[in-house]
Amino acid sequence: KEHIAEVEKFTSTSIEEIEAFRIKYLGKKGLLNSFFAEFKNVPNEQKKDFGKVVNQLKDAATDKVNALKETLESQTETVGKYGDLTRPGEPVEIGSRHPINIVKNQIIDIFSRIGFNVSEGPEIEDDWHNFTALNLPEYHPARDMQDTFFIQTDPDILLRTHTSSVQVRYMESNKPPIRTISPGRVYRNEAISARSHCFFHQVEGLYVDKNVSFADLKQTLQYFTSEMFGKSKIRLRPSYFPFTEPSAEVDVYWGLETETDYRMTKGTGWLEIMGCGMVDPNVLKNCGIDPDVYSGFAFGMGIDRIALLLHQISDIRLLSENDVRFLEQFKSAL
Ligand code: PHE
């Protein structure tokens, strides 16, 4: 009876162990045969009970061996079919974000903290959204400021030269107050060099509400540049854009005075990082917003240039060559 309990407890997934178990109980010189040999010495009145228990032990041992072998076989079959499912997985290589996306996400994050949402629009635009609505009617000389790629021969369909086109779309379908930034890829028919490409990326911003002033614009830019570049000085230089009046270029001081900030070593003095201005009343009118009630400011910056500065990348073309040796340098746990 003790042997029966032992047999029932036994388990194994090793073919050798199961075979050893079989030999121990069911082999030629196994326990069962020795019990059967013993049978003739058992007193007659106990023969019946003894025989019963020995037969139970034989059945238990046979069943056990069969059951364990069956499990083992079906496991071997699974491994053959699917491989060993209990093996630990192979580690997957972690990819990296593209530096353009890293910088774009930083910019989005900074503006979202002061209530700006994100808006997007098509890269293939019509003349109205890229030019005319922005106070750049046909034959306006300032259209040449941005050399344009047209789609085939239709002068009305083009690759957007800036994401100001998204701002037009946004104003057409939303009422003030408006606070939105528009990140995206833009195209200009320019010679490709270390400093400029025929496509690049922008984030443009738009704020429209009652009583928006130039002081609001300046304060917003100061907030942005210090979040983006660390403690930094900016300066606004008068400039011209057809869609803003007055207009300015924003320079950030990238120099020795701020060398304590790790993001701004390698001083190069004043660096132009964006254009901005108060939205021209004509633009508001074109987009269905009453300029007598509302005013606004807009700004636009190139993501690629900022990525080159922040990550000390020497050539803008590296950003679109997709060389893995370059891209994998931006791996981060975040
Ligand atoms: N759209 C301008 C450009 O692409 C940038 C800009 C945006 C300037 C908004 C002023 C206001 O160069």
From TrEMBL:
Catalysis: reaction(s): tRNA(Phe) + L-phenylalanine + ATP = L-phenylalanyl-tRNA(Phe) + AMP + diphosphate + H(+)
Localisation per UniProt entry: Cytoplasm
One GO cellular component term noted in the UniProt record for this chain: cytoplasm
InterPro entries per UniProt: aa-tRNA-synth_II, aa-tRNA-synth_II/BPL/LPL, Phe-tRNA-synth_IIc_asu, Phe-tRNA_ligase_II_N, Phe_tRNA_ligase_alpha1_bac, Phenylalanyl-tRNA_Synthase, tRNA-bd_arm
Enzyme class: ligase
Residues that hold Mg(2+) according to the record: E245
Record bears the keyword Cell inner membrane: no
GO molecular function: ATP binding; magnesium ion binding; phenylalanine-tRNA ligase activity; tRNA binding
Any single biological process term in GO: phenylalanyl-tRNA aminoacylation
Keywords: Aminoacyl-tRNA synthetase, ATP-binding, Cytoplasm, Ligase, Magnesium, Metal-binding, Nucleotide-binding, Protein biosynthesis
Cofactor binding, per record: Binds 2 magnesium ions per tetramer.
Record-annotated Aminoacyl-transfer RNA synthetases class-II family profile domain positions: 103-329
Superkingdom of origin organism: Bacteria
Cofactor(s) essential for the protein: Mg(2+)
Enzyme Commission number, as recorded: 6.1.1.20
Cross-referenced CDD domains: PheRS_alpha_core (cd00496)
Alphabetized HAMAP family for the sequence: Phe_tRNA_synth_alpha1 (MF_00281)
PANTHER family associated with the record: PHENYLALANINE--TRNA LIGASE, MITOCHONDRIAL, PHENYLALANYL-TRNA SYNTHETASE
Assigned protein family: Belongs to the class-II aminoacyl-tRNA synthetase family. Phe-tRNA synthetase alpha subunit type 1 subfamily.
Subunit record text: Tetramer of two alpha and two beta subunits.
Protein name: Phenylalanine--tRNA ligase alpha subunit
